[in-house]
Amino acid sequence: MDLAPPPERGIFCNRTLNLRAIEAVGYDMDYTLVHYRVEAWERHAYEHLRRRLASLGWPVEGLRFDPELMVRGLIIDLELGNIVKANRFGYVKLASHGTRTLSFEEVRRVYALTPTDLATGRFAFINTFFSLSEICMYAQLVDLLDEGEISGISSYAELAQRVRQTLDEAHWEGQMKAEILADPERFIELDPDTPLALLDQLRAGKKLMLITNSEWGYARSIMEYAFNPFLPKGMRWRDLFELVVVSARKPSFFSAQNPIFRLVDEQGWWEPVPGPLPQSGIYLGGNAATIEQYLGLSGDRILYVGDHIFVDVNVSKKLLQWRTALVLRELEHEVRESSAASKQQRELDERMSLKEALERELCQLRLLEQRRRHRYGPVIDLDEAEIASRSAELRGEIQQLDERISPLARRVGQLCSERWGPLMRTGRDKSHLARQVERYADIYTSRVSNFLFRSPFVYFQSPRGSLPHDPLSG
Ligand SMILES: [Mg+2]
Asked: CA-to-CA distance for 368 and 390, rounded, in angstroms?
């Protein structure tokens, strides 16, 4: 394998992490070790939901799943029926009401004084690919509710609650999973390099764990399909793992004292484990404290790898100080798109700094004019006409620059998603998601097999980072 990965397959470091010092690595399964074909899965899930709503008499016959409508990292404003994208400070910069994109003015009017606060019940974060179908349906139903097509619902929050309730009642997840198992090729995107990356870590002396919320029957079948064909002869997926924990109930797995059960029979016979774990094997439920005790390790020796910024990364770090790695598949697309647009980005940056210089001069002239008019401050050798003429000249230049800046900014702002732009940016700033990643994920990467490029002995060094007061380079 090529030692230098393509840029989109890199492992990016927020906080320095010495992989050599890590003695145990835990993995989430869905969208971490195993990647699903997002559009196929979500379209399928959406149809389940749509049929269920139709059977309850909702006017959803004409609705179709739109994969372009929603992306991860957006926030739902349940009070207003809006879907919004916020910057790192929580301020909303882009929004749609239902499926209708709000104008810049509308966004400003509604959100200038209301930063998103995830601690309140008003805002909900879209953390996972599994939510895209539900949110797409929600936005479309907001449109129908506004048009008076849905009766018996009095608020956007109630609408969201009814959609969720319908999903829960429909037991669609069990049905969906049965359909996935019947036709895995259609829904799972295999990565033959992932088993090898884990095998490298195992042979380097690390204890591996699979900690998933999926139940045993499903996890077993999926792991057999995704791992067994790519392991050395005679080796099975479960030989990789010291511990397999299914139905883990993350995030409460990291904080509560949920009881733990050991698999005693392949068909799903579980017996309770009252004390410490007796041996390696397959477990159900349980909690992180029991795992730490079994491993005899403190949090800084354990790395947990998952795709859910809250469930996998935020909670494990905050509560237990586990080291964390976030898997963000969208990064591959995002890095490729950004590099394809780097020429435009450079031109945009240059023109923006030119505009900034012109605006600075314009402000300065305005101040000089103010001093001249009120007769104070140092004497200057410009008269009123000269100030006015230079100011007019500057305004003209700024306007010309704006004509070039607008299309460039639009192009760069629509990378990856025409509606929402790149996942990790909101305008020129970091996105809300990017801020969460920075805070809670020590490292992040697009897929687990990227570890192959870096070996189990790598020292991830965080970059020095830039600050607004740093001297300009170049
Ligand atoms: Mg997952």
From this structure: 12
Q: How far is CA 380 from CA 128, 368, 387, in A?
A: 61, 8, 11
* pLDDT tens track for 390-448: 999 999 999 999 999 999 999 999 999 999 999 999 988 999 999 999 999 999 999 99
Kindly give the distance from the C-alpha atom of residue 131 to the centroid of ligand 1, in angstroms, as a whole number: 12
Does the pTM surpass 0.85? The reply is: yes
Instruction: Tell me, in angstroms, the distance from the centre of ligand 1 to residue 373's CA.
Output: 65
Q: Where are the beta strands (DSSP E) in 121-161?
A: 123-125
In a 10 Å sphere around its CB, with 0-12 CB exposed, 13-18 middle and 19+ buried, how is residue 221 labelled?
Answer: middle
pLDDT confidence of residue 340? 94
**What's the gap in Å between 266 CA and the centre of ligand 1?**
24
**d(CA 209, ligand 1 centre) in Å:** 14
Q: What tens digit of pLDDT does each residue of 86-108 get?
A: 999 999 999 999 999 999 999 99
In which element (H, E) is residue 282 found? strand 281-285
Amino acid at 412: V
Task: Give ion ligand 1 contacts, CB < 5 A.
Answer: 28, 30-31, 307
Q: How far is it, in rounded angstroms, from Cα 16 to Cα 450? A: 17
Exposure string for 397-409, b = 16+ CB within 10 A, e = fewer: ebeebeeebeebb
- Separation CA 232–CA 312 (nearest Å): 29
> Pick the residue with more confidence: 254 or 4?
254
Instruction: Using the mean position of ligand 1's atoms as its centre, give its distance from the Cα of residue 453 in Å.
Output: 23
**Alpha helices, DSSP H only, in 147-228?**
156-170, 172-182, 184-187, 193-203, 216-227
In the block, which residue shows the tokens 């005693």?
264
